[in-house]
Amino acid sequence: MPQIILVTGGARSGKSRHAEARARGLPGERVYIATARADDDEMRARIARHIADRGDGWTTIEAPVDLVGALDRSDGRGPRLVDCLTLWLSNLMLEGRDWEPEAAALVAALARQKSPVVMVSNEVGMGIVPDNALARAFRDAQGWLNQRVAAIADEVEFVVAGLPMRVKGPSPA
User: Fold this and answer.
1) What is the C-alpha separation between 27 and 30, in angstroms, rounded?
2) pTM of structure
3) Which amino acids are annotated catalytic?
4) 107-115 mean pLDDT
5) Which residues pair with 171 in a beta bridge?
6) What distance in Å separates the CA atoms of residue 6 and residue 149, rounded to the nearest whole number?
7) Which residues fall within 8 angstroms of residue 118, CB to CB, at 6 or more apart?
8) Which has fewest Cβ within 10 Å: 30, 89, 155, 168?
C-alpha cells in the first residue's frame, strides 16, 4: 500500500476530487487536514463547497500552519488527506516564516508516518513569470516544495481536465 501520494495539477483541474477518491480507497478512518483559512466570504464559500463535495465520513483537522503537528497527531488512525500544500506554503510566507525549515520538517514527518498521506498541491510555475517579487518568490518556493515532496513520495499524479496521469509509482491495477 502506498504511504505517501502527491496529487498535483492546476487550479480547478480536479486534483482535490481525485485525491479524495484515492484516500477513500485506503482502509481506516479518513482524516482531512485542511490548510485553508476562511478569511473572506469567497474563501468561506470554497471551503463549504469542499466540505459538501467530500460528504460524510471524514474527521477534519484544521492546520493552516502546523501541518507537521497535525500529521503526527493523526498518525495511526487511517489515511490522511492534506488539502493543500499550496495554501499551507502561502500561510507560512504571509506570516513571514522561513518556509525552508518548515518544508524540511514536513519531509521528515512524512518519512515517519505509519498511516498513508495523500497530499494535494498546485503546479504554479507553468505560466508566465509573475511581475512582482512576492509572487515570484511564492512560485519558486512552491516548485521547490513540490520537488521535495515528490522525491520522497511513493506515487505522484498530475491531474489535468479531471484526468490523472501517473508521474511516479506503479501503474494502477
Assistant:
1) 8
2) 0.92
3) 50
4) 96
5) none
6) 7
7) 5, 7, 19, 22, 23, 26, 79, 80, 81, 82
8) 168
Residue with cell 487511517: 78
Per-residue confidence band for 121, with pLDDT thresholds at 50, 70 and 90: very high
Query: What is the biggest distance separating any 2 CA atoms in the chain, rounded to whole angstroms?
Result: 45
C-alpha distances (whole Å) from 68 to each of 6, 7, 25, 171 are: 16, 18, 23, 29
Task: Kindly report, residue by residue over 14-49, the tens digit of the pLDDT.
Answer: 999 999 999 999 999 999 999 988 888 888 888 788
b/e burial code for range 115-146 (CB count within 10 A of at least 16 → b) = bbbbbbbbbbeeeeeeeeeeeeebbebbeebb
Tell me the chain's radius of gyration from C-alpha atoms. Answer: 15
Q: What is the DSSP string of 71-101?
A: HHHHTTSS-EEEE-HHHHHHHHHHTT--HHH
Q: What percent of the chain has pLDDT over 90?
A: 79
Sheet of 30-34: strands edge to edge? Answer: 58-62, 30-34, 80-83, 117-122, 4-9, 155-160, 163-168
**pLDDT tier for residue 168 given thresholds of 50, 70 and 90:** very high
Mean pLDDT of 49-71: 89
Answer whether residue 1 shows pLDDT above 80: no
